[in-house]
Amino acid sequence: MATLDDLKKRIASVKSTQKITKAMKMVAAAKLRRAQENAEKGRPYSEKMNNIILNLSSGISDKENAPKLLSGTGEEKIHLCVILTSDRGLCGGFNTNIIKKAKAYFQKISDEGKILKIITVGSKGYDQLKRVYKDSIVEKISFKDSKTINYLDAEKVGNMIIKNFEKKEFDVCTIFYNKFKNVITQIPQEQQIIPLKTYEVEGNSSDDNYEFEPEEDEILSILLPKNISTQIFKAMLENSASEQGSRMSAMDNATRNAGEMVDKLTIEYNRSRQAAITKELIEIISGAESL
Amino acid sequence: MSEEFKIEIVNPEKSFLSKEDVTEVVVPAFEGEMGILKDHISIISFLKPGVIKVFSKSGEENYYVEDGIVEFKNNNLSVLTSSIFNIKDVDKDKINELLKQAEENSKNNEITDQNKYLIDQKIDVLKTLN
Predict the structure, then answer these.
(1) What's this model's pTM, rounded to 2 decimal places?
(2) A210 and B44 in contact by Cβ < 8 A?
(3) Is B10 an 8 Å CB contact of chain A?
(4) How large is the ipTM?
(5) Which of the four CATH numbers 1.10.287.80, 2.60.40.10, 3.20.20.60, 1.10.1740.10 does domain A4-21+251-289 have?
(6) pLDDT for A232-251, tens place per residue?
(7) What residue in B sits closest to A223 (Cα-Cα)?
(8) Does A52 touch chain B (CB under 8 A)?
């Protein structure tokens, strides 16, 4: 049985751990609010962009000559996966959930005999994937230095993807990220960005008669690369909100668990203290009796 | 009948400007400046570096943009841009800095003609602001 001193030390150490997790929870909560605001502020841009592209692509009659970013290369041999994860740990199942989703997708691809290429954004994703998929990882990016999510970072990733696409290094591109639903729920998402999946809009396209300046295809060819950066930016915003949310609930759990542990240890400490006192008393009494 | 329409300027980070009492907007479209009044036909166009002028009852506002897309539909004007600022809010240093950067870029010979054209435009506009 642990001595009283050992128990005391353990209680102290669990308490200081609890202090840390509590502080981390507070920090995550503050950051979460900001990240959530940013994610909400960023939504109009990507929504508008999507709308314009939808309007444009539904107006294109000549599907054959549509830009490759929209229609694809006509093949589906090489798949590029962009895995967006965090740079820091201690955020519960946040990174693991994305990786799990991605790994299922990787499995599907290799079962179909297609070639897999991976870009990891955020160092945690790279750490988790490097053991199994080291040969498939073509690039790893980390934005540890930028304090906040900014569009320039997203543009860098976007431009890299487009450059690789133009070099015909892949046919299909999918991004993986966590969608922020609420503080306790984050849903891992896979989203195909090249070729762009457009949802067929039903019904009245008659009032969508736009005038274009310059021509439609020219607009599309400029707009589509922008859209990729925008989608990645959106994913990064959602991801950062999810990361903070996930960390907040993970740290909340940790704090609660530490509290439970302190309670248990305190009871054990008190019991053994009492047992020691009782033992001493018995010794004294039985010593007195024998006289 | 009122002659006003709505304008919304968004950049990736946030909604930059939203106004409902705009009477005229002049945007630096790709093929020349374009003035937009109420009941303009639906249009999608690109911006080149230049100045967006927004006229409303409260006066005129000028914004510098480097790129972007404009969409006008049902008397809603949306401008999507990745870099925009109000000309009133920037000082000369910032403009000079941008100008220097642009001039450096224009010396780079590897850029395409189209990019070259855009950078030259940018230099022109920045010079007039200065």
Answers:
(1) 0.83
(2) yes
(3) yes
(4) 0.76
(5) 1.10.287.80
(6) 888 998 899 999 999 999 99
(7) B69
(8) yes
